[in-house]
Write a structure and sequence with these properties.
Helix content is 3%, strand content 55%. By secondary structure, the chain is mainly beta. Among the domains are: 122 residues, Immunoglobulin-like (Sandwich); 89 residues, Immunoglobulins (Immunoglobulin-like, Sandwich), CATH 2.60.40.10; 122 residues, no CATH class. The strands form 5 sheets. Strands 25, 26, 27, 28, 29, 30, 31, 32, 33, 34, 35 and 36 form a 12-stranded antiparallel beta sheet that branches. Strands 1, 2, 3, 4, 5, 6 and 7 form a 7-stranded antiparallel beta sheet that branches. Strands 8, 9, 11, 14, 16, 19 and 22 form a 7-stranded mixed beta sheet that branches. The two termini are 110 Å apart.
Length: 495
């Protein structure tokens, strides 16, 4: 329900002063003119001031809308005595005629709406006149936003290097650290400024906008408006902090016949826009995983050992380079640590030995070499250094005039690392005198613990082999020790 407002009487001097100065009064305090002279809109507006345009509704404030000079005026909630109004352009004064007088509402700055206007002495309204000066209108939005940027760094410690022998073990300690950094800002206020030209004139314009003392960057699609046209500009300003306030844009008219405008909107900074992640998961290739919401570190150990399996070594050495990585799952950032393990194989020393298949001696004195009478399917001992059982020698049954002789070595023995380390000679009769293995007819190179060779069938065989016998290594590297007909030697041969 509308409230009737009581008209106040002002002296003629006050009325004239207001008419000249255009000082704004509240809607409930009209200037009262007791003896009003009616006429068209231009005539009536000229009685109260200097205005560019006017429009007279020649009826008792009916509800409706009317357009004049690109300005649309609307009267609403009218009962013939009290009404509300709005317009697309700013209104400088509204004259409400009733009976013999008029109530005049002045607006400075010009307004685009008001409520509860009433006629002279609260009488039935006879007509309403709107007066205004040409001016741009504007509206704006203001949105505030600030950013919190989160960055994470990861460091993995530490590299390590270990050396040892087969079977040695080592424990390496790792440290994984993450560091969280938060950066605040920018603090941005941005939005739009819509400029309207509700006049019959073409108007050039400029938009100036500042937020909390910071000049905004403004971008407009045009700098000139045709009659009735509008343009929406964008603006942005970066502040020093999250200061809530009101943003006002000033629109300057470049046409001296048209006034400029202002537009305001409040803004408030809320929660920040998060760039990055607040909490992380860390995965480690050594099998560990952790979570963190802030800077943190973790420590753990990993065991390394030198293998005991001789096959893992190359030229007596085993080398491991363990590259392990800790990664932040959410960002992909990572760091690595490398552990290097160098292992030396267990030393194995060998003595050179010559070996013969068991049987009678070639000569009774001066040489212990032996030959073997052929018995199909027989197996004899392979003696090294006269008395050491280094393996066996097997003689197959003859086939197509050939006999297969197979030498199989016992544990702790290997064929010498040399070519033609097996030499065989066949005899039709028992040999006498010292043998010369280098001149034996049948030769071969054995590389494993068992070796077979086919030779012509005959009554006797001299079977000779060059061997290495595993012995205890001397304390001092490079030492030698006489042992039978061979010698103890270093460097170590990898087993």
């Amino acid at each position: 329900m509308k409230k009737h407002r009581i008209a106040f009487l002002f002296s003629l001097a006050l009325v004239m002063a207001l008419a000249v100065s255009g000082t704004a009064l509240a809607a409930g305090n009209p200037v009262v003119k007791d003896d009003w002279k009616s006429g068209d809109a231009a005539f009536e507006c000229a009685q109260i001031g200097s205005y560019d345009a006017g429009y007279k509704v020649d009826a008792a404030a009916p509800n409706g809308s009317w357009t004049s000079d690109f300005n649309t005026i609307t009267i609403s909630d009218s009962n013939g005595k009290v009404f509300d109004w709005s317009s697309t352009a700013g209104i400088g004064a509204v004259i409400v005629k009733a009976a013999t007088g008029a109530n005049v509402w002045f607006y400075d700055p010009q307004a685009t709406s008001d409520v509860d206007l009433f006629g002279y002495q609260d009488k039935d309204i006879s007509h309403v006149t709107f007066c205004w000066n040409y001016a741009l209108t504007a509206a704006k939005t203001a949105d505030a936003e600030w950013t919190k940027t989160i960055s994470w760094n990861i460091v993995k410690e530490s590299d390590g290097s270990y050396s040892g022998s087969a079977g040695d073990s080592f424990t390496h300690g790792y440290k994984v650290s993450v560091d969280k950094t938060e950066t605040f800002g920018p603090y941005v206020v941005e939005g739009t400024v819509t400029v309207n030209n509700p006049t019959p004139l073409t108007v050039g314009f400029e938009v100036n906008d500042s937020v909390a003392g910071v000049f905004a960057t403004v971008s407009c699609p045009t700098s000139e408006l045709a009659p009735g046209a509008s343009a929406t500009c964008t603006y942005s300003a970066e502040l020093d902090g999250a200061v809530t306030g009101t943003n006002t844009a000033a629109i300057a008219s470049l046409n001296p016949e048209v006034d400029g405008a202002t537009a305001s909107d409040g803004y408030e900074f809320g929660d920040p826009v998060i760039v990055g992640v607040e909490a992380i998961n860390v995965s480690d290739t050594n099998g560990q995983s952790w979570q963190a919401a802030g800077s943190a570190f973790w420590e753990y150990t990993k065991d390394f050992s030198c293998p005991v399996d001789a096959s893992a070594y190359t030229n007596g050495e085993y080398k491991l380079e363990d590259v392990n990585t800790a990664t932040i799952v959410e960002t992909g950032a990572y760091d690595q640590a490398t552990v290097t393990l160098t292992c030396i194989a267990a030393q194995q020393c060998y003595a050179d030995e010559t070996a013969w298949a068991a049987g009678p001696r070639y000569a009774k004195k001066g040489n212990w070499a032996t030959y073997t009478p052929y018995v199909a399917g027989s197996t004899v001992t392979l003696y090294a250094g006269q008395t050491m059982e280094a393996g066996t020698v097997h003689f197959s049954a003859a086939a197509d005039g050939k006999v297969t002789i197979t030498i199989t070595l016992n544990d702790g023995w290997k064929f010498a690392d040399a070519g033609e380390n097996v030499k065989i000679q066949d005899y039709a009769s028992a040999p006498s005198g010292n043998p010369a293995p280098g001149r034996f007819a049948w030769k071969g190179t054995a590389t494993s613990s068992s070796f077979s060779i086919d030779v012509p069938e005959n009554k006797f065989y001299g079977v000779h082999a060059d061997l290495l016998h595993s012995v205890e290594c001397p304390v001092a590297a490079g030492a030698s020790l006489a042992y039978g007909s061979g010698s103890l030697f270093l460097p170590v041969v990898q087993k």
